[in-house]
């Protein structure tokens, strides 16, 4: 105790009087005088793909009797940033999503209430020890088991086109079982999120069952909509929609049961059965249409949505071989049985029908995927090679077309090899991928196939510990979807129809990104510039066919854009008050066969967090970016949130509100010469809610099985057209 008091007294003095280098020397001398042994805590999880570019200055906490030297919260690597959770971040978290929120990673927007993780408006791919994972799987993580979070904003070829990746490195818990529950009901509407997870271990085996239910039932909404149709002869007619109210449903549930056999550093075997049920995803609008030609107003009823279920099977094997080699194989299969519908009615006040459109598509679709990777590590380099195959078999019945059946086959094969090498302050990564895509309609024997190369290169230069430059070039391909290629005609309203184009070709995208990462006292962040081009992007194309305005799809002349962003994180009061955010500017150009359009806009988000005495106060505001695609500019949700939570033993109690300020807005506007329109979807999202979380842990538990790869077997789905 005397030694501890002396240490505390001297630490206070040296903190204010000594330069940084003298402080480090003084701490080292004191450690030797104390005669203790310094123990470096290591990750108990074997990371089969270690980052060998740079050595951590301190990779974890170093302990000497009662002296604790805390690890740096952020470590810059050549190909990723490592974030180590602080004690307060762990103490104020009851699941993996809350932990991610508490890390306040710059440029990452975490919305636990809506179950979203985004960066610069794009979805972030989530992984657990390398395995592609869902929001629910991340939520099921115990905060105490998360050793670090890897933020990869320039994913390599093995990530197969992901724009950014968050990888949770999870260590062995020293417990034998765990129960996690979370409930987030709203106080004024039928809205909420409910989650439960149960883990049990026996020897090398682990059993896990989890489930989630998301309720959104009859949320009040309305639409602001106006449009102008221009005929080929130059005449036009405008329609202005006055809202008479509407509702939105978006209820769904997930269930998963898995068995894992884990023999550390040798073999991992995992089998998972899952079921996803979309109970209702419905949008209903009612309005009054006023026409510019002076004709009578029109009553409008517009409803569209879908529902269905998707069972899935996953099997995974990871085998460690001599000489730092690893072989991993993953198989996935999923089956979709559901329907998509659209009802659109226009009628005069007297009851006479003008348009009566009913579309009903029943799908029974299947997807199968297998992927294998080989990984070889050396002291300063790494080789990764892999191959994958995905097959989609789709069967769609159009009830509105007399039960007409359409079959589509989609096949995708992907091969890649990537090499990483460290040259001191410079690290280089280069690789090449090749992708084969094919789709075919059985009834018409129409389709297309192609081979595409995917080169990728990254160079990183770190002149000092506090700064890093990273240049990345990447490419990927996008195959046309089922909705874009299906030749079955769909009526949307009294003017508009939609029909797919089976002659579409797989499009390619190219992106060059330069980032500067900086770490200063209490401030870290990223400044970046990104140039993107997709010279043959698949976009909608409109044309008149007699009195019908038809939407089809084409390989356009391309989209080009440039983006600049600044994403800082500021530790205003260490361990108490933190601020992070993103400010972004984008300028873009879109060219089709007969048009050229430009768009530029500012977007961003800001989050603030105050943690102390077991309380956590968070606030968030996001202004969505506007994206130009084809002749349409669209934007996601402009949203705000505030929440206050309190941690007590195994419990967390919280209360918050969605949209405490501002106005919910999600929409689009069309700049097409034949149809200009603007649509704003407004929801009654000023929702107060409470949140209750409970964690119970006991015994001795083995590490959960986590994949290094994930074969993509996402089943395709039809879409009934809507305005």
Structure notes:
The protein has 723 residues and is mainly beta. It has 6 helices and 42 strands. The strands form 5 sheets. It has a 26-stranded antiparallel β-sheet that branches. It has a 6-stranded mixed β-sheet with strand order 4-5-11-12-9-10. α1 runs antiparallel to α2 (20-34). The protein is globular, with a radius of gyration of 27 Å. Mean pLDDT is 83; it is low at 1-72.
Short description:
This protein is mainly beta and 723 residues long.
Radius of gyration: 27 Å
**Cα shape:** globular
Percent helix, as a range, is: under 10%
Provide the structure class: mainly beta
Q: List the uncertain runs.
A: 1-72
In what range is the share of β-strand residues?
over 45%
Overall number of strands: 42
Q: What summary fits the major beta sheet?
A: 26 strands, antiparallel
Total of helices:
6
Average of the residue pLDDT scores: 83
- N→C terminal distance: 73 Å
């Amino acid at each position: 105790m005397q030694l501890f008091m002396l240490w505390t007294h001297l630490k206070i003095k040296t903190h204010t009087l000594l330069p940084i280098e003298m402080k480090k020397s003084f701490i080292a001398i004191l450690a030797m005088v104390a005669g203790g042994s310094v123990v470096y805590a290591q990750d108990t999880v074997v990371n089969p793909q270690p980052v060998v570019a740079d050595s951590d200055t301190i990779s974890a906490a170093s302990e000497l009797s009662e002296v604790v030297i805390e690890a740096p919260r952020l470590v810059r690597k050549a190909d990723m940033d490592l974030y180590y959770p602080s004690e307060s971040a762990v103490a104020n978290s009851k699941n993996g999503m809350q932990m991610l929120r508490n890390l306040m990673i710059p440029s990452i927007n975490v919305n636990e209430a809506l179950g979203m993780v985004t960066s610069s408006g794009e979805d972030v791919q989530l992984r657990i020890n390398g395995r592609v994972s869902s929001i629910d799987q991340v939520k099921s993580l115990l905060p105490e088991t998360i050793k670090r979070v890897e933020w990869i904003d320039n994913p390599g070829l093995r990530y197969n086109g992901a724009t950014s990746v968050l990888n949770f490195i999870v260590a062995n818990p020293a417990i034998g079982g765990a129960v996690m529950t979370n409930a987030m009901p709203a106080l004024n509407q039928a809205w909420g999120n409910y989650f439960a997870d149960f883990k049990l271990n026996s020897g090398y085996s682990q059993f896990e069952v989890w489930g989630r239910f998301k309720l959104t039932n009859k949320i009040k909404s309305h639409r602001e909509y106006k449009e102008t149709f221009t005929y080929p002869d130059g005449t036009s007619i405008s329609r202005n929609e006055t809202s008479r109210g509407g509702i939105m449903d978006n209820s769904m549930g997930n269930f998963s049961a898995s068995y894992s056999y884990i023999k550390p550093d040798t073999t991992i075997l995992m089998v998972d059965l899952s079921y996803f049920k979309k109970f209702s995803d419905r949008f209903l609008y009612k309005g009054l249409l006023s026409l510019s030609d002076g004709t009578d107003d029109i009553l409008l009823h517009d409803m569209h949505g879908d529902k269905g279920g998707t069972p899935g099977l996953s099997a995974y094997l990871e085998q460690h071989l001599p000489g730092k080699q690893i072989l991993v194989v993953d198989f996935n299969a999923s089956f979709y049985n559901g329907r998509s519908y659209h009802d659109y009615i226009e009628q005069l006040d007297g009851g006479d029908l003008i348009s009566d459109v009913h579309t009903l598509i029943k799908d029974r679709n299947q997807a199968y995927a297998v992927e294998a990777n080989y990984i070889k590590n050396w002291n300063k380099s790494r080789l990764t090679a892999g191959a994958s195959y995905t097959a989609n078999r789709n069967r769609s019945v159009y009830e509105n077309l007399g039960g007409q059946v359409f079959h589509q086959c989609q096949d995708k094969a992907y091969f890649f090899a990537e090499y990483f090498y460290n040259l001191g302050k410079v690290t280089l990564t280069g690789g090449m991928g090749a992708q084969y895509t094919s789709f075919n309609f059985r009834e018409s024997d129409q389709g297309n196939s192609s081979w595409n190369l995917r080169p990728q290169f990254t160079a990183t230069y770190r002149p000092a510990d506090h700064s890093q430059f990273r240049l990345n070039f990447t490419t990927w391909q996008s195959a046309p979807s089922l909705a874009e290629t299906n030749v079955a005609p769909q009526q949307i309203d009294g003017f508009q129809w939609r029909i797919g184009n089976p002659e579409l070709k797989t499009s390619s995208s190219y992106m060059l990104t330069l980032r500067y990462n900086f770490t200063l006292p209490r401030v870290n962040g990223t400044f970046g510039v990104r140039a993107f081009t997709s010279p043959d992007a698949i976009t909608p194309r409109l044309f008149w066919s007699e009195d019908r305005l038809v939407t089809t799809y084409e390989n356009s002349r391309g989209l080009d854009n440039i983006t600049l962003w600044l994403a800082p994180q500021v530790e205003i009061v260490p361990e108490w008050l933190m601020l992070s955010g993103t400010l972004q500017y984008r300028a873009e150009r879109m060219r089709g066969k007969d048009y050229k359009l430009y768009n530029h806009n500012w977007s961003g988000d800001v989050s603030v967090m105050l943690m102390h005495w077991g309380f956590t106060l968070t606030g968030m505001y996001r202004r969505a970016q506007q994206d130009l695609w084809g002749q349409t500019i669209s934007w996601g949700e402009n949203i705000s949130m505030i929440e206050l939570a309190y941690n007590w033993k195994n419990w967390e109690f919280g209360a918050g509100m969605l949209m405490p300020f501002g106005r919910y807005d999600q929409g689009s506007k069309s700049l097409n010469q034949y149809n200009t329109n603007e649509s704003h979807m407004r929801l009654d999202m000023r929702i107060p809610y409470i949140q209750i979380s409970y964690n119970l842990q006991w015994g001795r538990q083995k590490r959960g099985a986590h994949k290094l790869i994930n074969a993509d077997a996402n089943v395709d789905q039809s879409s009934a057209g809507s305005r």
